[in-house]
RecA family profile 1 domain-containing protein (Lithocarpus litseifolius), 563 residues
Amino acid sequence: MQVSEMRALRLIFYTKTQRLQRLHPSIPNSLSSFPQFSRHFLHSTPSLHHSNSTAETAPRAWSIYDHAPGTDGNGNAKKPNLDIVGNKKKGKARFSWVCADCGHSDGQWWGACRECNAVGTLKRFSEGGSAEVSEGKTWLSPKAGESRPMRLTDVNRGINQLNWRIPLHGPFGNEVSRVLGGGIVPGSLVLVGGDPGVGKSTLLLQIAAMIAERNDLGQPAPVVYVSGEESVEQIGNRADRLSIGADELFLYSNTEIEDILGKSQPLSPRVIIVDSIQTVYLQGVAGSAGGPAQVKECTSALLRFAKRTNIPILLIGHVTKSGDLAGPHVLEHIVDVVLYMEGEKYSSYRLLRSLKNRFGSTDELGVFEMSPSGLQAVSNPSEMFLSDQYSDSEYLAGLAVAVIMDGSRTFLIEVQALCASGSTASRQVNGIQASRADMIISVLMKQTGLKLQEDAIFLNVVSGVKLSETAGDLAVAAAICSSFLEFPIPNNIAFIGEVGLGGELRTVPRMEKRLNTVAKLGYKMCIVPKSAEKSLGSHGFEGMEIIGCRNLKEVINTVFRAH
Ligand code: TYD
Ligand code: MG
């Protein structure tokens, strides 16, 4: 609850209590008489306030689904309402507008408070308890009083931590598993976000099929794929294209959460998939599907269902134009895992990252390729950004290979430079931060004496990748030198290092991991900062020569001389 809302409630409470006290002198007159500040005082009879035991255990949660129907959270029958605020009609969601300044409440919204005339201070309050949850749908409400604090040893007894997660098999499964931290955790709520058309539905349908075909015991297990966006025929069509024929995969097209969970639970699914959180709604909650209140309440209901039944739920979430997950930010706080799928518009590569993971590291990356038959794991991700031409680019000047890291993955990236003399001096960069490119060009001019000022310089990173790590500086500088000097760099040399303003080379983190990948790919030489060379000691990198250079001048003298 917002601080201002709390303040408003306190004010109403104070004003109303004063009024009530005049009528019933037995009512206490300050909040301090109540061990907890709960909105339930709005509906309580005066005698309820005297019961310390009830007040002490009153839940704080705001959600209208926090109580079992007809109870106060402790299994006690609800006391009759005492109408104090707003215009109430039985059986309907009730709202009132409360002035945050004076506490005056009104049945409808006004631009200014009719009591104190303050403008824009009216805040809407749901008075709760109005949305009826059908009997028997108890997953929507926590069973307070059932659970007790448990010893860690008791909790862990009988759980084999190694077999605890639902494993995903095969190259595709391993790639998803790596991002999740080793399989799907039972009872977890996983949110998968990404731009429209990036492949979220395809990814989750493939995961669903994988589990439906073979679960952890090697047996088929039921999986329910619910879509609020597509009809079952459309999902079936997609499954057909992906050659999915799992008998245990159930498709369901619906948008009402209670109905979805009610019809899924009897199937005892191993996993439930909901596509997407912006299309589902919960009856009794204000606002249309996709609105902040609906998204929050639906996610909370799904989380409670997952925790109570131990059935993991994978959720799809849309992103806004700015790249944030649509809906309230609280969504990311509620779920256990947030995965983000990204991909360039004209590239078939898709990266799956973990932004939040309560059960594993967020330092992992899954690499896929979107093919006509669905997403496939990429077997050699390190090389995927090198262009085909590169292997026979022995005679092409202006190409250099950078070694960058993303999460725990190492990628080799091809940087291209073109220095064109005779045209107007201008700079065009693509895939590199323009200010960083300017800095490297200026350092080259000042510290190595290259006369670049009269040339037009074009820089490009192949495959539409963004070079955001400073470890790529040296490759950018090397590509520019190569083009300017018209001296092709042999295609078995890679570059790692950050360039400082004095032209000096600086070391970057995880040198050893980068060098291991480069060596495995058969490179014969790697240029690194001198300081890094020392720290590597006498490591052998499969016969690859490691050359440490102090500054850009040394790099030019080493690489650009007749072999
Ligand atoms: P989709 O999973 O519908 O994306 P999202 O749910 O994130 O909006 O994927 C849509 C794109 O994926 C679509 O442009 C076509 C492409 N695609 C393939 O290339 N191959 C396939 O086998 C499938 C199913 C989709
Ligand atoms: Mg989709």
